[in-house]
């Protein structure tokens, strides 16, 4: 345990251009490589596998936060939940056949988080509470590169017009994307348990080539 003033880090503020795009206006951003805790799965966004994945991710994310604060005197904010969405048959995605959707839920981590620290913390979480999906948590990097994104306000089911805006911006600029490779990305800034659906804030992002 270190004995020095605690440093405070809020990545969401440092990366404001990536986590606070304009409401209703699609914009271009470049997303560099970041490290994430991830859990992969398939099926309904609110199904049991998804709920278990989210529980495991937050368990490890908060354990990392407390471990780093204690051992390194760095207090960093836990980042919001994010999700990548696609399907092996993108017709299922377009036509909202959610049972066939593939997903990766994830939480971004600061650059000083290491594989060794994640493994150590996962062992600690396993001894204390051992959430069902803990064994599926992995630590990996993702570099999306050039992307278009927009802030959506309201229920997830009403994202359609905003998704169309970012797709239109990409196509009108002469670029393309393949949904199974450049995956639809959502960043959930609101806690649906505490916020009315009409006030939910979600960053909707689409990488392109």
TrEMBL record:
Would you tell me the protein name for this molecule?
GyrI-like small molecule binding domain-containing protein
Domain GyrI-like small molecule binding positions = 28-203
InterPro entries recorded for this chain?
A: GyrI-like, GyrI-like_CCH_Lin2189-like, Reg_factor_effector_dom_sf
Name the Pfam families for this protein: GyrI-like (PF06445)
Q: Which organism is it from?
A: Dehalogenimonas formicexedens
